[in-house]
Design the sequence.
């Protein structure tokens, strides 16, 4: 039962981070009013993708948390750091419209995601693989963010 509770908590942490961040980011109405590149997805796609990514992140973190690796503490620290960057990105972008700064912030976040994936891979390959969609989505988000900066 304890493992099930840890799994639920592990999933709720990134979901909560994303939910609180979305609350402080304000409305996504900005997204509908700014110039975007042609391959920008419609706004309704973002919450669907993010909830899936947060669930995968939570499962991945749970696998690391439950491992007996002496490296899990450092890996979970990196996970927490990238979650911190994740929390602030949408606030910087949507609330404050700091498109260039948000892009640079996102690049730092991607660096920590890559470091996290590497550390997770050293402990448990599945936990690292579960983070790949997150990395790919953030790379796509970086492209969108940069293009929005250029177009606006």
Sequence:
């Amino acid at each position: 039962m304890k493992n099930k509770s840890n799994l639920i908590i592990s999933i709720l942490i990134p979901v909560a981070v994303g939910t609180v961040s979305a609350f402080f980011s304000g409305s996504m109405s900005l997204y509908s009013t700014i110039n975007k590149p042609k391959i920008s997805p419609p706004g309704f796609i973002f919450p669907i993708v993010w909830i899936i990514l947060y669930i995968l992140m939570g499962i991945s973190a749970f696998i690391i948390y439950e491992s007996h690796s002496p490296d899990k503490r450092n890996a979970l620290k990196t996970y927490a750091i990238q979650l911190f960057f994740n929390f602030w990105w949408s606030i910087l972008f949507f609330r404050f419209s700091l498109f260039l700064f948000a892009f640079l912030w996102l690049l730092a976040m991607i660096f920590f995601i890559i470091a996290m994936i590497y550390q997770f891979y050293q402990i448990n390959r599945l936990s690292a693989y579960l983070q790949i969609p997150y990395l790919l989505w953030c790379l796509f988000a970086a492209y969108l963010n940069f293009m929005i900066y250029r177009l606006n």
